[in-house]
Amino acid sequence: MPSTHSLESVDDSVQSSDDSAYDSDDDIRLAEEEWEESITQLHLVLTVVAMPFIGKWFGRRWSQWAYARYLRFGFTKGFFGVSG
């Protein structure tokens, strides 16, 4: 009888190790899904918020530069950097 009890405990330990491996695989899969979702959200923030803001800033800087150049040279060849 004692040998049957020890076999049951071995079967239980093997089954519990299989369950823990299954849980570990699920945890890894869940972590990868959350990572991919975080990357997607970061991409969305950069696309929707940061890029328009940066584009707006560079556009204003360029327009100020172009206007100052226009005031200095007028709309002549000098404005475009062509001498002569």
From TrEMBL:
Kindly list the biological process annotations in GO that this record carries.
mitochondrial outer membrane translocase complex assembly; protein insertion into mitochondrial outer membrane
Region feature Disordered, mapped onto this chain? 1-25
Could you name the domain of life of the organism this protein comes from? Eukaryota
Name the GO cellular-component terms: mitochondrial outer membrane
For this protein, the record's InterPro entries field holds: Mim2 (IPR037652)
Name the Pfam families for this protein. Answer: Mim2
Which PANTHER family did the record assign? CHROMOSOME 1, WHOLE GENOME SHOTGUN SEQUENCE, MITOCHONDRIAL IMPORT PROTEIN 2
The molecule here is called: Uncharacterized protein
